[in-house]
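Field: COMPLEX_INPUT
Field: COMPONENT_COUNT = two
Field: RESIDUE_TOTAL = 458
Field: MODE = joint
Values follow.
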Amino acid sequence: MKNIRGIVFDLYGTLYDVHSVAAACNAFHPGRGREISVVWRQKQLEYTWLRSLMGDYADFEQLTREALVFTSGQLQLSLDDAALSALCAEYLRIAPYPEVPAALARLQAIGLPLAILSNGSANSIRSVVTASGLEQRFAHLISADSVRIFKPHDKVYQLAEQQMHCDRSELLFVSSNAWDASGARHFGYPVCWINRIGNTFDELGQSPDHIVQGLDQLADWLQTRQPAA
Amino acid sequence: MKNIRGIVFDLYGTLYDVHSVAAACNAFHPGRGREISVVWRQKQLEYTWLRSLMGDYADFEQLTREALVFTSGQLQLSLDDAALSALCAEYLRIAPYPEVPAALARLQAIGLPLAILSNGSANSIRSVVTASGLEQRFAHLISADSVRIFKPHDKVYQLAEQQMHCDRSELLFVSSNAWDASGARHFGYPVCWINRIGNTFDELGQSPDHIVQGLDQLADWLQTRQPAA
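Field: COMPLEX_OUTPUT
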């Protein structure tokens, strides 16, 4: 790996815990919050991939709502429009993983520009980052929306390279989603996979360059590699 | 819907039951066969979509094996190479759903050419159809392999239209996979969704033209529409 000149983070599932919406789901269907958020997240991912392949793009907020409509039908939840809207609003204020705020501060102190590259709409990304009070950490918030296709398509990964004026080999891409880490690696970024819960890496012909169990471990590693600016 | 001049079937999960491999999985890990086959199938699908989006095509047999390697790791099965090969061989002889052989005979008697359009490799499709003794039913076995991308990309759906020398509006596309039915509908085929087990249709901006609970019901419906040749 060359010297790193910037760090690009995935948002959903990497810096922020998508299953923090389970608490709000639980308020509508006590005892079923986690079950709902798991199906919802799985369908949300599938719809990003399927719509991209079909050539029928719609933005992340629309797909998030459509995935919840499916989930409501499949799990027989009978969520009405108000409930759907309330739960989708929760997706705009999901919580960062516990170690993330302090680790981002340490990474920023190293002097590297930090960016988010997400399938979320520009509004989704801004809302989530602002709701958690972390907007000062990031030099760039980059949405797939401008290229109207989702990760793991190359067009999305290319956005970070372009906006950060770096070669892909100089940007460290960080994701907890193995499929996303694989896509970024295939595109040409050096990749760090955050594996918080002992998952198995996907078999997509790629391997991460570095594996950590949390963002604090990434800060530890980079502080030994490049001392604070 | 115009007069129908041919029928195009999806294979995996539509005519043939992918979970018929659960019995073989069970022989390696008693009591866990269904759990294994569910994760394996889900990953197999994901890998077709993800590799297509990454622009890193590999054929269905390779992805099926890679999905099983992932499943073995995630479920801590420690399947060795021989076990992986034995289980992948099972995918080449999955069983048709019980009503399928008789219903295909009835559909063929109507006089419409029947085709399979599948993400499977040409070898996979031929093996499955031959193992079940149904090869005489089909005028065309069409694999996504020739265009090196998977459904629901338009390039795959286009293959049936081309090889059957019909306009897309004249071919009935039949799938149990709601994402596949959605892709075919978006491409322009009239679509019949086989919903055997009370699933919810995916929210991908499309609706099936016709819904049945089994292939026998499709034969019933078409026999009333167009009398036997």
